[in-house]
Amino acid sequence: MQHRIVVKRHRPWFRAGLIAGGAALIAIAAGVFYLWVRTHTISEFRQTKTELEQLRDERRDLARELRSARADNVDLRQQLVYAQRSTEIDGAACTEVKASLSELQAEAADLREQVAFYRGIVSPDETRAGVRVLDLKMTQQADKLRWRYDLVLIQSVRHDKRVAGSTRLRLIGSRDGKEVTLDVETLLAVGAKLPQFAFKYFQEFTGEFALPPGFRPIRAAVTLVIDGEEAAVENEFDWSKIKVEQPPEQAPPPTPQSGR
């Protein structure tokens, strides 16, 4: 075995230089990295701060818009309530006006009837002088079976004496295809009769009767037999013009009672 002899140059400072150089490079790299991180961190911080301020501004704007929208909403609600209230008031006023108008029209109709009534007494037509039928109404009752008659007699022109007599009321109609005449007195309740009249100006009568099944009235005839006179007074009325389907809701205005 042969031994080799290696001769190395003795440089004790070289290793120290390498270590120092490496440390310097590491320090330089660390400084560069620190500067890079610091630069980027500051930039990102500033960008984040700018975005945060923008978000705060947007939040303030949105808060203002929300307050404005809420205020507008309150105003709109108040306007809606006002409009609804105005509509209710207008509707109530309209309903009240319609009701008042209906009442006035009904009152005017009643007044016209009363005027016509008194005109027939005070200033009648000469051709209608004497005792006659002023009005006849047939009102169907709620049970649909019974009818009420309302008869008004007047004496026009001759008011110098009191007249008296009897009344006959007949119904002319059809049953089973044949013409039939019924005396209303036979249709009254048991024991009831048509009233006798005795008055100077006018007299009113009323009563109830029941129509037999299958009878369809067409006309009504009123005969007035005056005491002391041979000729009777005849009046005929078309049933369709004198019938009232339902009883009136309110009683007619009071008129002077009979026997005057």
Structure write-up:
This protein is α+β, with helices and mostly antiparallel strands and 260 residues long. It has two domains: 13-123; 128-244, Immunoglobulin-like (Sandwich). It has helices spanning 12-122, 239-242; strands at 130-140, 146-156, 163-175, 178-183, 196-199, 202-210, 216-226, 233-238, 243-244. The strands form two sheets. Strands 3, 4, 5, 7 and 8 form a five-stranded antiparallel beta sheet that branches. Strands 6-2-1-9 form a four-stranded mixed beta sheet. Strand 3 and strand 4 form a beta hairpin. The longest helix has 111 residues, at 12-122. The radius of gyration is 57 Å and the shape is rod-shaped. The model is unreliable at 250-258 (pLDDT under 50).
Taking the sheet with the most strands, its summary is: 5 strands, antiparallel
Q: pLDDT under 50 segments (min length 5)?
A: 250-258
Number of helices: 2
| Shape assignment | rod-shaped
The CATH first-level class of the largest domain comes to: Mainly Beta
Order of helices and strands: HEEEEEEEEHE
Question: Within the CATH hierarchy, at the fold level, what is the topology of the largest domain?
Answer: Immunoglobulin-like
Distance between termini?
179 Å
**Structural class category:** alpha+beta
Quick description:
By secondary structure, the chain is an alpha+beta fold. It has helices spanning 12-122, 239-242, and strands at 130-140, 146-156, 163-175, 178-183, 196-199, 202-210, 216-226, 233-238, 243-244. The chain has two domains: 13-123; 128-244, Immunoglobulin-like.
